[in-house]
Amino acid sequence: MPADRVSVNRRDFLKAVAGGVAAAGLPAWALAKAAGERPNFVVIFTDDQGYQDIGCFGAPKIKTPNLDRMAAEGMKFTDFYVAAPVCSPSRAALLTGCYPIRTGVTRVLFPRDSTGLKPGMKTIADVLKTRGYATACIGKWHLGHKPPHLPTFHGFDSYYGIPYSNDMRPTPLMRNTETVEEPANQATLTQRYTREAVAFLKANRDKPFFLYVPHTMPHVPLAVSEAFKGKSAGGLYGDVIEEIDWSTGEILKTLKDLGLDSQTLVIYTSDNGPWLSKRDKGGCSLPLRDGKFSTYEGGFREPCIMRWPGTIPPAAVCAETALTMDLLPTLARLAGADLPAGYKLNGKDISTLMTNPGAKTPHEAFFYYRGTTLEAVRSGKWKAILYAKGADGLPAKPHDLYDLKADIGEKINVAAANPDVVTRLAALAEAGVQANGGKFGRGVRKKKPKKTPKKPAAR
Ligand code: MG
């Protein structure tokens, strides 16, 4: 039955989303279309923020009242993953719903690079444009800083921000495809991004919108406005996070003032784990192991909060595996948009996780790729760290196995006691390499003395 001939209302739509049940024989995306549902979406994506660096995720010194309230009014995801432990590939995965190895972006892009997403890859903005959404990207893009790789070539109506990392030169501030300031004054960036975001919301209050705010901070060098300087008990890093918390509060306040709360899904997370070698200038991933660059949990698992009053239940916690790659199919479904044609996504629709706290993850396995190497796999509570095969066809070192529910810090290798689980996870990873490409397993490196502590003091 064609979607546009079915009479459905918002209640039918929400029921279908919550239960994953198709009413009138239609999937929820078709119901969304038929019901005229086009909710608004705001994705706030910080840079190098640690798992612990939000009050409600355990930060002992950094104060984040706005994010804590957002979690109290929405859902906290405790097992939420990015698809790379560094900036560019993580962003490629979030926006396309595919593992970075399939997007053409598997490493950090530098100003000397002239590449970006592979031709033909569609972003969340591209997909939502087909349903008439207004779209804006405000912040750090980092998927190519020259045409045709800038945001306005990838479905965004407008762009404002530094196109790559803030430690790269010449650090231009761009509006659409033009440089408007160079080098950018980084101390006022979060304030200016926030003003731009609020103005976009006000200008588009009467139509569906997708606002993507990939903050430049807290990537080093840290910078903060005078209003937040020296205020946090967590030092300069804490000041920066507290300013981002304020920024999130301004966005939420604007949505409330505009009467858009119940029509808007807001998602907050970060692109990869904290840069631990920066010591007090980097964040904290406790209780996870390691941080940025690593395939241990500290590199990939991020704090995540989703809020959508009336649809996502308040004060909820989801401990199921969910991914940034899930956002494209999920938002497409909620907006009634078709998925990109011609290729299969790795992300899956997680709207049932968002609306039903008892729902289970749709992912049998999640693959931790570092560059083009699949180094680890998670399935359920189990995670295996995988080693490449030697000349004899056997792993150069036995794979490691961790029970993430019992041992979130990946301290106790339980591979010897669970050989069947190791075999199952290794087979899933082999299939992952077959399906997505790349190499299987990390090489066995000679141990070098560590110069930096793995876990900085908690802040
Ligand atoms: Mg980053």
Structure summarized in a few sentences:
This protein is of the alpha/beta class.
What is the CATH architecture descriptor of the largest domain? 3-Layer(aba) Sandwich
Give the terminus-to-terminus CA distance.
56 Å
Q: What's the main sheet like?
A: 11 strands, mixed
**Are there runs of 5+ residues with pLDDT below 50, and where?**
1-5
Q: What would the average pLDDT be, to the nearest integer?
A: 92
Spell the H/E element sequence.
Answer: HHEHEHHEEEEHEHEHEEEHHEEEEHE
Give the beta-strand count. 16
CATH class of the largest domain: Alpha Beta
**Rg computed from alpha carbons, rounded to a whole number of angstroms:** 21 Å
What percentage of the residues does DSSP assign to strands (E)? 15-25%
Query: How many discrete structural domains?
Result: 2
Question: Could you walk me through the main structural features you see in this protein, from its secondary elements to its overall organization?
Answer:
This protein has helices at residues 10-19, 28-35, 65-72, 87-96, 124-129, 189-203, 235-257, 297-300, 327-335, 351-355, 419-436, and strands at residues 40-46, 75-81, 134-138, 158-161, 173-175, 178-181, 209-214, 264-270, 301-307, 316-318, 322-323, 366-370, 373-379, 382-385, 400-403, 439-440. The protein is α/β, with parallel strands linked by helices and 459 residues long. It has two domains: 28-355, Alkaline Phosphatase, subunit A; 366-440, Arylsulfatase, C-terminal domain. The strands form two sheets. Strands 1, 2, 3, 4, 5, 6, 7, 8, 9, 10 and 11 form an eleven-stranded mixed sheet that branches. Strands 12, 13, 14, 15 and 16 form a five-stranded mixed sheet that branches. α6 (189-203) packs parallel to α7 (235-257). The termini are far apart. It binds magnesium ion. Magnesium ion (MG) binds at residues 47-48, 87, 219, 271-272.
